[in-house]
Amino acid sequence: MDDLHRKLTELENYLKDLGSVAVAFSSGVDSTFLAEACGLIAGTVDGNGDKTVEKVYLLTNVDNSNEHFSMDPKEQLSSVKDMRANGIVPLGNWHSHPETPSRPSEEDKRLAYDSTASYLILSLMDAENPVINSFHVENAEASKEELFITNN
Fold first, then answer.
1. Could you tell me if 109 and 142 are in contact, meaning their C-beta atoms sit under 8 angstroms apart?
2. pLDDT, tens digit, for every residue of 60-115?
3. In whole angstroms, what is the distance from residue 99 CA to residue 120 CA?
4. In the beta sheet, which residues pair with residue 94?
């Protein structure tokens, strides 16, 4: 159990260290490293279509699975309300891969319905060296997006 708490703390710290990203942790989140963690990303889009993530929402994976995730619908709605209240827009979602690389699985690609969304995947297969990548997914085809992490 101590190992799970250590890994959760590492995930929280990693997300907090993503520069200007403010992490909003909801209460009651069931995200141990045995299950995929998941959430939403929000921010702004400039005239060139470049996205700036300003807030990361950590939501409950109601599937409690290490192979797939489903976000809690009430938490999703609450997150969208918070985005509206703060003048930011949904940019996409993120989830972790506890045991696999930072790339979309076949299921990830199949379930990626919004071609305007960014899909961030955080690989925790090496918890001491997490890897995060962003992807554009359209028609079940994934392409890597440029991801710049800055400290503002």
1. yes
2. 889 888 788 999 999 999 999 999 999 999 999 999 888 899 999 999 999 988 99
3. 16
4. 39, 120
- CA angle 98/99/105 to nearest 5° reads 90
Q: DSSP per residue over 100-111, as a string? A: S-SS--HHHHHT
pLDDT band at 8 (very low <50, low <70, confident <90, very high): low
Helix or strand or coil: residue 150? Answer: coil
Q: Tokens representing 130?
A: 């997490």
pTM score of the predicted model: 0.77
Measured distance CA(13)–CA(86) in Å, rounded: 23
> Can you name the residues that pair with 144 across neighbouring β-strands?
135
